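Entry 14. Ran structure prediction on the chain below.
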Amino acid sequence: MPGTQEVVLNFAMLAGPQARPGGSVKVNNCVVLNYYSTKQLMLDLRRAVERYESMYGVLEMDPRKRLTPAAQEMLAQQQGAARPDNLGTPTPIVPTDNPGGGENEEKKPN
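Output, structure tokens:
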């Protein structure tokens, strides 16, 4: 049981049938951090993602929007339905002036 001054990160592989919500998984690795180290890790991860997005474009967080047209077609066939028209054609990824900007970006007070 973690203490009040610890953050515990459990790492597990979610793939296949066991990836269903509410299912149990086997934890492969565990990292215990204090809150100072946790914040430093968070800042380092944010900087790494911002650097990546500035070079390659914004990472799409919705898995359905990341599917290629061929994968969308295959998914639709597996579900027994036609490909939804509202998914459209994927747009090219173009770096923006605000590489970390997005709907989930933290708003900083002025």
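Strands lie at 7-11, 29-33. Will compare against last week's run tomorrow.
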